[in-house]
Amino acid sequence: MLLAKKIRINVSRQDAETLEFMQAKCRALYNWHLSQLKSGAKWSVYDAKKTLQQSRQIDPELNAVYGKLLQEVFFRLNEAMRGFFRRVKAGETPGFPRYHPRPKFFTLKYPGVYLRVEDQTLILPTGGRGKPKRFPDVRAKLTETPPTPFREVAVTKDAEGHYYATFLSDADESHPQADDGSAIAYDLGIKTLATGYSTTGRFVHVGGFTTYRWYNKQLDRIRALRSHCQKGSRRYRYLTRVYHRVSEQKRRKQRDSLHKASAFLTRQAESAIVLGDLSQQQMVQKSRNVTKRTKGLHRSVQNEWGLYQFVQMVQYKAQRNGKKLYVISERYTSKECSGCGYRQEMPLWKRTYHCPQCGLVMDRDENSARNILARFLARLGPYPERDDVLSTSSGI
Ligand SMILES: [Zn+2]
Fold first, then answer.
1. Interatomic CA distance for residues 141 and 125, integer angstroms
2. Looking at the structure, do residues 11 and 132 belong to the same domain, yes or no?
3. Segment 107-160, tens digit of pLDDT
4. Would residue 392 count as lying in a domain?
5. If DSSP codes are grouped into helix, strand and coil, which group holds residue 66?
6. Are 59 and 124 contained in the same domain?
7. Which residues neighbour 30 within 8 Å (Cβ) at sequence distance 6 or greater?
8. Is the pLDDT of residue 282 over 60?
9. Do 166 and 193 belong to one domain?
10. For a pLDDT cut of 70, what percent of the chain falls above it?
């Protein structure tokens, strides 16, 4: 289990150029190998690595890039290809891995053992033998204290041009909470991010973050202003920069909300947390074939919440707080009456569950949460405790 801490770093102008140089070289190497694959070459990470020597001869500038960063490029490509083949094998039709576009910073991943931190300065090596090297090692000023020991450091740059170092470390040994059989089940949803129902019979509602609405309005405004400018003009470019800055702020705000919500979720008293399997949700499933009715809702879920990211956060925070996390099939949990088991269609826009059989009237999400908990308690199937919720989707 890895924990990540992202820390802003300050670098000199020269060091920023060094980072730009190295990331551009890594990206070019990545894209070049991808282009070979696109034109039908077979992928083998072993063979690809062997070509690095040739690549260095063709482009001697690669020698100025720290070698481990180049190795990482092959690893990343391998991950992308493996993910692609895994999905093909599962009968899906995934898109081929994509090129890394030029305006984006190609993340530089350093293995932790090769890095040193000297009084709040992270030293990122560059490539090349002998002295002087073409680029001296990058000395990045850390604005926070990194966790020690760390396993890996990823260097990124945001839309505003700030650099960050993300330290990945092994989580502290968590203190497992005594399992008293109590559990709380959450329905992850559209209007409220999460609705919980616990074995003690209490409801928990997490959500109601509305700041993104304000951001959306700003973004729409900037776009509208820009549409009146001539493409490529000074004002057009200025507004583009502003647009990027505001969307970056929005993204950060949302992440922050998700962090807070997941922290809240995992701090509840119950010793087990139960989530419905996201892969079965209407809103996730229907991403390819969006109907008029679900379109608005769907967009709000995909863009505004980021449920997958949220589940990841819940996952590692649960672990850190010593809670058990279970992910169970949530098939029909929104369609079934939690009072009598009656089943009816529940399109996404129906926010209240009205049961024609027993007369139950209940909030849609609360009804689902009750069903998820009931199903978990009844153990309607083997639900192994999940370590990695997202990579293994259970079909149905
Ligand atoms: Zn009923």
1. 14
2. yes
3. 999 988 889 999 899 999 999 877 788 999 999 999 998 887 888 899 999 888
4. no
5. coil
6. yes
7. 73, 76, 77, 100, 106
8. no
9. no
10. 85
Instruction: Extract the tokens encoding 302.
Output: 């995909």
Task: Say what the pLDDT of residue 392 is.
Answer: 34
Q: Residue 277 corresponds to which tokens in the numbers above?
A: 């399997």
Q: For the full predicted model, state whether its pTM sits above 0.85.
A: no
Q: What distance in angstroms lies between residue 352's CA and the mean position of ligand 1's atoms? A: 13
Contact in structure between 337 and 357 (CB atoms under 8 Å): yes
Alpha-carbon span 172 to 54, nearest angstrom: 43
Distance from Cα 335 to the centre of ligand 1, integer Å: 11
Q: Please tell me the distance between residue 361's alpha carbon and the centre of ligand 1 in angstroms.
A: 9
Least confident of 3-12, 103-112, 362-371, 383-392: 383-392
Residue 262 domain-assigned (yes or no): no
Instruction: Give the CA angle between residues 115, 100, 4 to the nearest 5°.
Output: 40
Structure tokens at 382: 């083997």
Overall domain count for the chain:
2
Structural domain boundaries, residue 353: 183-207+268-378
**What is the spatial distance between Cα 138 and Cα 158, in angstroms, rounded to a whole number?**
18
341 Cα to the center of ligand 1, angstroms: 6
Q: What is the pLDDT of residue 293?
A: 44
Say how many Å lie between the CA of residue 356 and the centre of ligand 1: 7
Six token digits for residue 295: 């379109």
